[in-house]
Design brief:
Shape: elongated
Distance between the termini: 106 Å
Number of helices: 29
Number of domains: 4
Helix content: 25-40%
Length: about 1100
C-alpha cells in the first residue's frame, strides 16, 4: 500500500468536505439540530447578500440543493428556495440576550410543534450551528406575507367575488384550526409523551424544575425585493420573568397534553405560499416567541417572558394586567385584529385599510398605545387600576360596516364574521384567578374554530350567504372623523343678527358685555392649553387636528351697525362673556328663544278649534301675588279646565339621594296644605329656581312631578304615570335642571367666567378669542341628568327644552340647538338618535320611516333606555310607558312591555348586551303592592343593558304557529284548552293591569353544544332547571333542509312552580334542535 505524501494527506483533509455536505432529514431530532465543523460545506447553491434584518436575526433568501433534504417535493427542479435565518451573536450592551440559548429553545419548540403536522403552521427544514453562528432553515414563502397582500392590493375590493371570499374563509378556518392545535386542544405529541415518561421515571412525584424560556430570536420570511423589513421588537424583559416553572405531572394524565401560545400574531407573521388559488395557503410563522403551557390550564404561575409582541396587535391584558400571567386567549385578540383588517381589505382594498390605520394614528396622536384598545384609570377599593375598552375607531368602523355596507347589511358570511370579531374576539374580559370578572369572556381557540367552520360550511351551501354579488364600485369605507356626532356644531355666519333668535336689543345693551382683554396678546394660560396641539382654523373657532371639539372660539360682538356683518367675514356673532345668571339680560335671551320659536317654527302646533288639550291633574300656580307663596291647583276643579290651551312649564330634574334630606313631596297628609299655600322658603332649591324661572319667562303655571303627583301610600302615582305622555308633550316649554345633582342643589348657579383675549383691529370692532364651551353633546346628552331613566321620556316628549348646564344654558327645539353664547347647532336629521329624540312631534320621524327604519329606531330607543339609572328599579317599565304608547299609535299596532305586535318576533329576541355592558341581567324585585305584572319575556323585568339580535331584513321566516303574540287570534295549532285569552280589549300596553301576559308556545329540546350559540340572560345555563327552546323564526334558504338553517330561538326554563320563564336567546343551527315531533306546549310567564 502506497503511503500518502504530506501534500496528498493535506489535500484529502481539505477536499473530503466536498463529500460531507449535510443532508437534512425530516423527523430526526439528532439530524435536525446539528453542530457542523468549520470546514463543512453547506448545501446552499445561492444566498441573497441583502438580508431582511430584524432585531435578533437576519433572514436570507437562499437556494438549497434539492438532494440535500427529503422534506419537500422538488417538482423537477434542482433547488429548493428557503429562508435562512441567521441569529445575531452580538447585540447592544446591557442586554442578557444569548444566541445559543435562544437558538436551542426555538429549535426545541419548532421541532415539537412540527409534530402537530398542520398545513397552516410553518415547519422548519433544518437547524444547525456553523462557525459560531446559529441557523434555522425554513421553506421560502413565495407569496410574501399577509402584510404584503394587505398593503399592495389597493383596489382588491373591486374584484370581490364568491371565489375570493370562499378562499378567505377556507384559509381563515385553516389558521383557526392551527391555532386550536397550537393551544393544545386534544393534541398529544410524541415528544410530549416521551418527556412525560422520562419525568415519571427519573423525577420524584412532587418535584419541579426550572426551564430557561427566553425565545428572543425573531423570524420573518419575506420574498426578495420586499420593501418592508422585519419589524424590530423593542420591548425589554426582566430577568425574573425568564423562569417558567414546570408543574409536576398530575395523576389524571393531562400533563401529556401540550399547550402553546404564539404571543406575536400579526399579518407580518402569517406567510403566503402560492398555489393554484388566488390567495394561496396561509401559514402561521415566527413560532420562536411561542410559549408552552403545561396542563389544561388557562394561566401559568409566573409572569411570561414573551415581551416582544407587536404593540398594535397585543391584547389589553398586556397593559392592564402586566403582573398577571398571559393567557392563550391573548392570541385570540390578535386574531380578532387580523380578521377585522382582512375584512376591511376585502371590502375596501388596501386604500380603505390604510384609511383605518390613519384614523387610528390620528386618534392616538403621539400616545404609545395600541390600535385596538384604550385604557383609563378606574378607582377601586384598593386604589386605582387601569381599565381597557375597545377603541372608538375600531368600534365605529365595525358598527359602520354592519349598518351601512351593502355586503354586511344582509345576513352574509362577512357579516357573521364581523359580528364574531365584535362579540367574541375583540372582548376585553378573560377569566382571571386574581380578578374575577363576569362574562362573557373572549373566545378560546376551539370556539373560534367552531364559529369560523360553521360560517364556512354555511357559505358552501348558500351562494347568496357567501356573497351578495353587489358591486363595490361606489361603496365607501366608514370614517370616524368625518362622521357627525349626535349633535354637529356649526358656528354660523348669519347675514343678520335676527337670525340668531336674539333681537338687536342685545346689541343696544352690549355695554353690559363690554370686553376687556384679560391679557395682552402674548402667551396666556388660555393659549398654553393648546400650545402643543396642531391647530387648524374652522368656521368660528380653532380646532385640534386630531379631531374632537374645537379648542378655542372666535367671536365678534353684536352691533347696531348694519355693516358689521361685512367687517369680519367668516367670524360669527357671539357673546364671549356670558351675562350674570340673575340678570335681566340672561332671562331676555331665554324669552327671545321662546318668542322666536313661537313666531317662526312649528314646534308648538296651534290648537285645533273646539278641541281641549288634556291638562295635568295638578299644576303649581306661581302667580306673583305676594311673591312669597305659591299653591297647588287641581285643574279639573277650576276654571282653567275649559281653557283650550293652557301655558305651563314642566320641570325635568333629578331627585337625588336622601342621605341628608328627605325628598320634598306632596302626600295625602299635606295635599290640603299645598292647595292653600306653599311657602317658597321651605322648598328645595331646585324648586325655588324653577319657580323663579317660570315667572321670568312670563308663564303662570309650573309642573313638578314630586309636587303635582301625590306620592306614597294612598297616592295616585300609578294612575298619573299613564298620562305622563301628555304632561311633557303639552307643556309650553320644559326646563331641565341639567347641572343639578338633586332637588336641593339648584340650577341657577353662578358660572365660572371663561378666559377671553381681545384682538384689537384698527378701525374695526375687536375680535375675541376664548375658551370653547359650546358642547351640547358633552354638557347635555352625555351629562348626568340624561343618564336618569325618567329623563329620556321627558326629552323625547318635550317640544322645546331649555337646559341649564354647568357652563352655559342651551335651547333645543325641532329646528336645532342654540347656545347662550349665540352659537347655533344643527342636527343631522334622519340619521341618528338626535333627530329621533329631538323630534317636537315625537315620534313623527319614526312613523315616517320605512319598516326597517322603524325597527332600528325603536331598538335604538330601548337599547339606550336599558342603560339608564333609576332610584327605584321597579320604575323601569313605567318611565317609558308614555313613549311606548306614542310608538304603538304611530306604528298602528298593539304592544306592551317593550314589544310591538307588528314586530313581535324581533321584539322577543332582545339579548343581554355582551359587548358594552357584560354584566348579567338581574330580575327586578317588584313590590307586592304593584297592580300589574311584568313577564319574564320582557326586558323590562330585569336590570341591565340590552341590545337586539342583529337580524337581517326580509330573510327570516317568522314562526306563526308555535309562538303567538298576546294580541293575535288563537293559534289553530294550540289546543283549545290552552289558547290565548286576553280579554275583549286587544289594544293594551305596559300600564294596563287587566291583561294576561303569558305566552303559549311550543318548546323543543336542543343539544348542549348549542350553548355556544346562546346568550343567557344570567350569564350561563342553569343546572337545576329543565331548559328548552322556542323557535321564533328561521332564516330563509334556497334549500328546504331545516338542519342547515339558522333558527332564532327563545330559550326557556321550567319554573319551580308552574310554567316556564325566559332565560336567553340564540341563533342555532337546525341540526342542534329536535325539530321532529310536535314538541310540548308550555306557558311562558
Amino acid at each position: 500500500m502506497k503511503k500518502w505524501s504530506k501534500i496528498s494527506f493535506e489535500a484529502f483533509l481539505g477536499k473530503q468536505w466536498i463529500f460531507f455536505a449535510p443532508v437534512f432529514k425530516k423527523h430526526n431530532l439528532q439530524q435536525f439540530k446539528r453542530e457542523f465543523s468549520n470546514e463543512t460545506i453547506l448545501p446552499f447553491t445561492w444566498k441573497d447578500p441583502k438580508p431582511l434584518s430584524g432585531h435578533f436575526s437576519d433572514v436570507f433568501h437562499a437556494k438549497l440543493h434539492v438532494a440535500h433534504q427529503d422534506e419537500y417535493d422538488p417538482n423537477g427542479t434542482e433547488h429548493l428556495e428557503v429562508a435562512l435565518k441567521e441569529l445575531k451573536n452580538d447585540l447592544y450592551e446591557g442586554t442578557d440576550y444569548n444566541a445559543e440559548n435562544s437558538w436551542r429553545l426555538e429549535v426545541a419548540a419548532l421541532k415539537e410543534l412540527s409534530e402537530l403536522k398542520d398545513n397552516h403552521l410553518i415547519h422548519p427544514i433544518a437547524a444547525f450551528k456553523w462557525r459560531r453562528t446559529h441557523y434555522i432553515v425554513f421553506p421560502w414563502a413565495n407569496g410574501g406575507t399577509l402584510r404584503n397582500l394587505l398593503d399592495t392590493a389597493r383596489e382588491a375590493h373591486l374584484d370581490l367575488n364568491r371565489q375570493l371570499i370562499g378562499e378567505f374563509l377556507e384559509q381563515l378556518c385553516g389558521l383557526a384550526g392551527a391555532l386550536r392545535k397550537l393551544h393544545g386542544t386534544n393534541t398529544q405529541t410524541d415528544t410530549a409523551l416521551a418527556e412525560a415518561d422520562m419525568k415519571n421515571s427519573t423525577s420524584p412525584k412532587n418535584s419541579s424544575r426550572p426551564l430557561n424560556l427566553k425565545p428572543k430570536a425573531e423570524m420573518t420570511t419575506l420574498p426578495e425585493g420586499s420593501p418592508r423589513k422585519a419589524t424590530p421588537l423593542n420591548r425589554a424583559s426582566s430577568d425574573t420573568d425568564d423562569i417558567l416553572k414546570i408543574i409536576p405531572p398530575s395523576e389524571d394524565g393531562d400533563s401529556d397534553v401540550k399547550h402553546w401560545r404564539h404571543g406575536d400574531l400579526k399579518p407580518e407573521n402569517i406567510l403566503i405560499f402560492k398555489d393554484s388559488t388566488r390567495l394561496g395557503t396561509l401559514k402561521i410563522a415566527d413560532l420562536g416567541l411561542a410559549k408552552q403551557h403545561q396542563f389544561a390550564t388557562e394561566f401559568r404561575y409566573r409572569v411570561t417572558s414573551t415581551k416582544f409582541a407587536t404593540l398594535n396587535y397585543e391584547a389589553p391584558e398586556a397593559v392592564t394586567n402586566m403582573n398577571e400571567p398571559r393567557s392563550r386567549r391573548y392570541d385570540i385578540w390578535s386574531m380578532g385584529c387580523i380578521i377585522l383588517e382582512s375584512i376591511i381589505w376585502l371590502l375596501y382594498g388596501s386604500q380603505g385599510l390604510h384609511k383605518f390605520y390613519d384614523e387610528n394614528k390620528r386618534a392616538r396622536g403621539h400616545a404609545q398605545q395600541a390600535f385596538y384598545f384604550t385604557t383609563s384609570s378606574s378607582v377601586t377599593e384598593n386604589g386605582s387600576e387601569l381599565v381597557a375598552s375597545v377603541s372608538e375607531i375600531a368600534t365605529h368602523w365595525i358598527t359602520g360596516i354592519l349598518e351601512k355596507d351593502p355586503e354586511c347589511k344582509r345576513y352574509t358570511a362577512l357579516r357573521q364574521l364581523l359580528e364574531l370579531v365584535r362579540s367574541r374576539l375583540l372582548v376585553v374580559a378573560i377569566p382571571s384567578r386574581s380578578k374575577p370578572k363576569e362574562g362573557p369572556y373572549r373566545a378560546t381557540a376551539g370556539e373560534l374554530y367552531r364559529e369560523v367552520e360553521n360560517i364556512r360550511r354555511t357559505a358552501n351551501q348558500d351562494d347568496e350567504y357567501l356573497f351578495t354579488g353587489a358591486s363595490r364600485r361606489n361603496v365607501k369605507a366608514p370614517s370616524f372623523f368625518s362622521a357627525p356626532n349626535e349633535i354637529t356644531t356649526e358656528l354660523e355666519t348669519a347675514p343678520s343678527q335676527d337670525h340668531l333668535g336674539v333681537r338687536n336689543s342685545l346689541a343696544h345693551d352690549s355695554s353690559q358685555h363690554q370686553m376687556r382683554s384679560q391679557h395682552n396678546f402674548e402667551y396666556t394660560a388660555l393659549f398654553l392649553k393648546v400650545n402643543s396641539a396642531k391647530i387648524w382654523k374652522v368656521k368660528g373657532g380653532l380646532a385640534d387636528r386630531n379631531g374632537g371639539t374645537p379648542a378655542l372660539s372666535i367671536y365678534r360682538m353684536p352691533s347696531v351697525k348694519a355693516s358689521s356683518d361685512k367687517q369680519a367675514p367668516g367670524i360669527p356673532i357671539g357673546l364671549p362673556k356670558l351675562a350674570d345668571i340673575s340678570s335681566q339680560t340672561y332671562f331676555e335671551i331665554l324669552r327671545q328663544w321662546l318668542e322666536n320659536c313661537d313666531n317662526n317654527h312649528t314646534c308648538l302646533p296651534k290648537p285645533k278649534e273646539g278641541s281641549i288639550t288634556r291638562m295635568p291633574t295638578r299644576l303649581i300656580d306661581v302667580e306673583e301675588k305676594g311673591q312669597q307663596y305659591v299653591h297647588l291647583l287641581e285643574t279639573q276643579h277650576s276654571q282653567i279646565s275649559q281653557v283650550q290651551y293652557l301655558r305651563y312649564i314642566a320641570l325635568s330634574h333629578p331627585w337625588g339621594n336622601t342621605d341628608n334630606l328627605s325628598h320634598y313631596c306632596t302626600t295625602r297628609e299635606n295635599i290640603a296644605h299645598h292647595k292653600a299655600a306653599i311657602d317658597i322658603d321651605v322648598l328645595p332649591r331646585t324648586f325655588k329656581d324653577a319657580i323663579h324661572t317660570t315667572r321670568k319667562l312670563g308663564v303662570r303655571y309650573l309642573w313638578i312631578d314630586s309636587l303635582c303627583i301625590v306620592q306614597g301610600e294612598g297616592g295616585d302615582f300609578e294612575e298619573e304615570v299613564k298620562y305622563m305622555e301628555t304632561v311633557f308633550s303639552s307643556a309650553y316649554c320644559v326646563i331641565a335642571a341639567t347641572c343639578a345633582s338633586g332637588m336641593f342643589s339648584g340650577f341657577l348657579n353662578s358660572r365660572e367666567e371663561r378666559e377671553v383675549v381681545e384682538l384689537e383691529r384698527p378701525g374695526d370692532s375687536p375680535l375675541y378669542v376664548c375658551e370653547f364651551i359650546d358642547d351640547f353633546q358633552g354638557d347635555v346628552i352625555d351629562g348626568p341628568l340624561n343618564k336618569r331613566g325618567w329623563v329620556l321620556q321627558e326629552r323625547a316628549l318635550a317640544r322645546r327644552t331649555i337646559y341649564f348646564a354647568k357652563k352655559q344654558t342651551y335651547w333645543e327645539c325641532g329646528e336645532g340647538v342654540r347656545c347662550e353664547t349665540l352659537a347655533r347647532m344643527k342636527k343631522p336629521f334622519f340619521s341618528n338618535q338626535a333627530a329621533f329624540l329631538g323630534d317636537p312631534e315625537f315620534p313623527k320621524v319614526a312613523a315616517g320611516s320605512p319598516k326597517g327604519g322603524q325597527i332600528r329606531l325603536y331598538e335604538l330607543l330601548y337599547t339606550r333606555y336599558s342603560t339608564l339609572q333609576f332610584t327605584k328599579s321597579c320604575d323601569r317599565p313605567l318611565a317609558i310607558a308614555g313613549l311606548e304608547q306614542r310608538l304603538i299609535r304611530a306604528f298602528k299596532t298593539d304592544g306592551g312591555y317593550g314589544v310591538f305586535a307588528r314586530y313581535f318576533g324581533r321584539g322577543l329576541l332582545w339579548q343581554r348586551d355582551v359587548a358594552s355592558a357584560p354584566q348579567v341581567m338581574k330580575p327586578i324585585q317588584f313590590p307586592k303592592s304593584q297592580k300589574y305584572k311584568v313577564p319574564s319575556w320582557s326586558w323590562m323585568a330585569y336590570e341591565g343593558a340590552i341590545t337586539f339580535m342583529d337580524l337581517p331584513f326580509r330573510e327570516i321566516e317568522w314562526e306563526e304557529k308555535e309562538v303567538r303574540s298576546p294580541w293575535s287570534p288563537p293559534s289553530p295549532v294550540l289546543s283549545s284548552s290552552s289558547r290565548l285569552d286576553h280579554g275583549s280589549n286587544a289594544v293594551w300596553h305596559t300600564t294596563n293591569i287587566t291583561e294576561k301576559i303569558d305566552l303559549i308556545v311550543v318548546a323543543r329540546d336542543f343539544s348542549a353544544s348549542a350553548d355556544n350559540y346562546i346568550v343567557y340572560d344570567r350569564g350561563e345555563r342553569p343546572t337545576d332547571q329543565v331548559v328548552k327552546c322556542v323557535v321564533v323564526g328561521r332564516r330563509k334558504m334556497k334549500a328546504e333542509v331545516d338542519d342547515g338553517r339558522i333558527h332564532y330561538v327563545l330559550v326557556v326554563a321550567q319554573k319551580r312552580g308552574a310554567g316556564y320563564e325566559r332565560i336567553g336567546v340564540g341563533s342555532i343551527p337546525g341540526s342542534l334542535i329536535t325539530l321532529e315531533g310536535p314538541g310540548i306546549q308550555v306557558r311562558v310567564f
